């Protein structure tokens, strides 16, 4: 009887632990500090072509923020798709900004050249000041901000189906008045 009670207690603890540990492992640190439908926090930044901007300068445009690192495999896989989308949206009320987390201007210039990225859309964030407004760690991270400055979508990682959904959403938002 004593063994049965100990075994039952063990099973109960084990079953209680599994869901809790899975929930913590699914997304413990990948959370965003911002919420969907929240106004994007104000921040200033410098693109690697030397121009200074504020995110509020882009009100009236749909903005895709892509946080990346030059060493990040999923980031590198994602960039050609974003670059293609950026070319497709050229001349429309939309922009993609690539924010290089913890990289110097020189590193980003070299990477942008290698990846054929538009220097006017690559943002320096050497101290992660912009990145830390949104999260503490993990890349790639993507946010879509509507023309009124509200966060519409935010994701971590690169999954083709989710990325395609974001592309569709980005295009639809650009077409709205």
Please render the helix and strand layout as text:
Layout: H1 2-26, E1 44-47, E2 52-54, E3 62-68, H2 73-88, E4 94-101, H3 105-114, E5 122-125, H4 131-134, E6 141-145, E7 151-156, H5 160-175
What does this structure look like?
This protein folds into 2 domains: 27 residues; 145 residues, Glutaredoxin. The protein has 5 helices and 7 strands, in the order αβββαβαβαββα. The protein has a 7-stranded mixed beta sheet with strand order 2-1-5-4-3-6-7, covered by helices on one side. The protein is globular. The N and C termini lie far apart (72 Å).
What do we call the CATH topology of the largest domain?
A: Glutaredoxin
Structural category: alpha/beta
Number of H- or I-type helical stretches = 5
Estimated share of beta-strand residues: 15-25%
**Terminal Cα span:** 72 Å
Listing every helix as H and every strand as E from the N terminus to the C terminus, the arrangement reads: HEEEHEHEHEEH
Mean pLDDT: 87
Short synopsis of the structure:
The protein is 40% helix and 21% strand. It has 177 residues and is of the alpha/beta class. The protein folds into two domains: 27 residues; 145 residues, Glutaredoxin.
Task: List key phrases describing it.
177 residues, single chain, Glutaredoxin, alpha/beta, 5 helices, 7 strands, 7-stranded mixed sheet, 21% strand
């Amino acid at each position: 009887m004593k063994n049965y009670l100990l075994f039952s207690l063990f099973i109960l603890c084990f079953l209680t632990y599994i869901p809790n540990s899975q929930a913590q492992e699914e997304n413990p640190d990948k959370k965003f500090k911002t919420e969907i439908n929240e106004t994007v926090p104000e921040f200033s930044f410098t693109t690697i072509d030397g121009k200074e901007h504020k995110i509020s300068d882009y009100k009236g445009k749909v903005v895709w923020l892509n946080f990346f690192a030059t060493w990040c495999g999923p980031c590198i896989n994602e960039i050609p798709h974003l670059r293609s989308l950026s070319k497709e949206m050229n001349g429309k009320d939309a922009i993609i900004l690539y924010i290089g987390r913890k990289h110097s201007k020189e590193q980003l210039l070299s990477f942008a050249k290698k990846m054929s990225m538009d220097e006017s859309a690559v943002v320096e964030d050497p101290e992660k000041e912009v990145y830390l407004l949104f999260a503490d760690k993990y890349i790639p991270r993507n946010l879509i901000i509507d023309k009124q400055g509200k966060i519409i979508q935010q994701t971590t990682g690169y999954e083709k189906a989710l990325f395609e959904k974001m592309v569709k959403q980005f295009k639809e938002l650009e077409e709205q008045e």
